[in-house]
Design a protein that fits this description.
Catalytic activity: S-sulfanyl-L-cysteinyl-[protein] + uridine(34) in tRNA + AH2 + ATP = 2-thiouridine(34) in tRNA + L-cysteinyl-[protein] + A + AMP + diphosphate + H(+)
Oligomer: single chain
Number of strands: 16
Strand content: 25-35%
Keywords: ATP-binding, Cytoplasm, Disulfide bond, Nucleotide-binding, RNA-binding, Transferase, tRNA processing, tRNA-binding
Main location: cytoplasm
Pfam families: tRNA_Me_trans, tRNA_Me_trans_C, tRNA_Me_trans_M
Subcellular location: Cytoplasm
Strand order of the largest sheet: 11-14-13-12-15-16
Number of domains: 3
Helix content: 25-40%
Shape: globular
Number of helices: 8
C-alpha cells in the first residue's frame, strides 16, 4: 500500500471479496525526508501514514517493511549506473521487477501468503497480463518485465476500472486518499532535478556536443549522463545549428564523453535490437518471426512490428518510424491488448 488511492481501493476490493489481506507499505529510503513528498511521493513517512489510515478503514492488519537497502542497490544504483553507461533506465519498471515482485513477493511467499496485490492499472486473466480498460492509465508496460512465475503470484484488482471509477469508489468507502493526486516523476529525486542528482554522484565530466550534420562542436556539457536520446530542452548550445532548426540528442557515447545532436528526422528508427527477453504471454518463445505491436516507453505510442528472436536477442522491425528510442528502456510486445513479452532496448537504427 503506497499511500495512494489505487492501492487503497485494490486492498479494499480483495478484502471485500473474502481474501485474507494484510496491508504492507514499503520503506524505501533510510532517510525518507530525502524522497518526494505530498502529491509527488509514494514512499515517504506521509505516504506511510496515509496507507495506515486506509488499512484501518478497510479493517486489515498493516505493516511497514524496510526495503531501503535492497531498493538502493537494485533501483537507485542501477539508475546511476545505467545513465553513466549512456542508457536511459525506467526506475518504476525496475522497482516492479526487483522490489515488488522479487524481494516483496519472495518474503510474502515465505510467510505463507499466496500473492502480492497492487494498485497497478492492468488486468490478469489466466495468468496472462493485459492492458487496463483505462488506456490513459494503463500500466501493463511497467509490468511487462515480470516472469510467468511472478505473474502467477500477482493480483491487479483495478484493471477493469477507470481511474475516475476508482476515485469515486474510494470516496464511497470513506478512504481519505480519494482525492489524493497521483504520484509523478522519480520518487528518490526529491527536487526533480535528474541531472543534478547524477552530477552529485558521478561528478563533472566536461565534453563536446557535436552536430551530426556538420561534425562541428556546437556546445559543451558537464556530463554525457545528463542527456537522453530524443531530448530537445536543456542542451545549452553555444550557437544555433547551421540550418537554424532545433537540435535533438541522437546518441550518447560515454567512452568518448560525446553527445551528438541533430534534426528531428535523424531520430527516426525502424530497426531495434533488444536484449534479455522475457516471454510471459500465452505463447512460448517463438521459433519463427511474429507480427505484433510494440510499446517503447511508458505511455508511448504503439507500433506495428515484426519480431525475430535469436537466443537472448530480439530483432524488431517497425512498420513505421519511431523517434526518441533510447537504449535502456523496455520494448514491450503486445498481441492486441495482451502482453507477449519484453526486452531491454540495446540499439536502434
Amino acid at each position: 500500500m503506497s499511500g495512494g488511492v489505487d492501492s487503497a481501493v485494490a486492498a479494499a476490493r480483495i478484502a471485500e471479496a473474502g481474501h485474507d489481506v494484510t496491508g504492507v507499505h514499503l520503506a524505501l529510503s533510510s532517510n525518507p525526508q530525502s524522497y518526494r513528498t505530498g502529491a509527488r511521493g509514494c514512499c515517504t513517512i506521509e505516504d506511510a501514514r496515509d496507507a495506515r489510515r486506509a488499512a484501518d478503514v478497510i479493517g486489515i492488519p498493516f505493516y511497514v517493511w524496510d526495503m531501503a537497502e535492497r531498493f538502493h542497490r537494485d533501483v537507485v544504483e542501477d539508475f546511476v549506473e545505467e545513465y553513466a553507461a549512456g542508457r536511459t533506465p525506467n526506475p518504476c519498471l525496475r522497482c516492479n521487477e526487483k522490489i515488488k515482485f522479487a524481494a516483496v513477493l519472495d518474503r510474502a511467499l515465505a510467510l505463507g501468503f499466496d500473492a502480492v496485490a497492487t494498485g497497478h492499472h492492468a488486468r490478469l486473466e489466466g495468468g496472462v497480463l493485459r492492458r487496463s480498460v483505462d488506456r490513459g492509465k494503463d500500466q501493463s508496460y511497467v509490468l511487462g518485465v515480470l516472469t510467468r512465475e511472478q505473474l502467477a503470484h500477482a493480483m491487479f484488482p483495478l484493471g477493469d476500472s477507470t481511474k475516475a471509477e476508482v476515485r469515486a469508489e474510494a470516496a464511497r468507502r470513506g478512504l481519505a486518499v480519494a482525492d489524493k493526486p497521483d504520484s509523478h516523476d522519480i520518487c528518490f529525486i526529491a527536487d526533480g532535478d535528474t541531472r543534478g542528482f547524477l552530477a552529485e554522484r558521478l561528478g563533472a565530466e566536461p565534453g563536446p556536443i557535436i552536430d551530426a550534420l556538420t561534425g562541428e562542436v556546437i556546445g559543451r556539457h558537464e556530463g554525457a549522463y545528463g542527456f537522453t536520446v530524443g531530448q530537445r530542452k536543456g542542451l545549452r548550445l553555444d550557437r544555433p545549428a547551421s540550418d537554424g532548426r532545433p537540435r535533438y540528442v541522437l546518441s550518447i557515447e560515454p567512452a568518448s564523453n560525446t553527445v551528438t545532436v541533430g534534426p528531428r528526422q535523424a531520430l527516426e528508427v525502424t530497426s531495434i535490437t533488444a536484449e534479455r527477453p522475457v516471454w510471459n504471454g500465452p505463447i512460448a518463445e517463438p521459433r519463427e518471426p511474429i507480427s505484433c505491436t510494440v510499446q517503447l516507453r511508458a505511455h508511448g505510442e504503439v507500433y506495428g512490428c515484426r519480431v525475430q528472436a535469436t537466443g537472448d536477442t530480439l530483432h524488431i522491425s517497425l512498420d513505421s518510424p519511431a523517434t526518441g528510442v533510447a537504449p535502456g528502456q523496455a520494448a514491450v510486445l503486445y498481441d492486441g491488448d495482451t502482453v507477449i513479452g519484453s526486452a531491454t532496448i540495446g540499439s536502434a537504427a
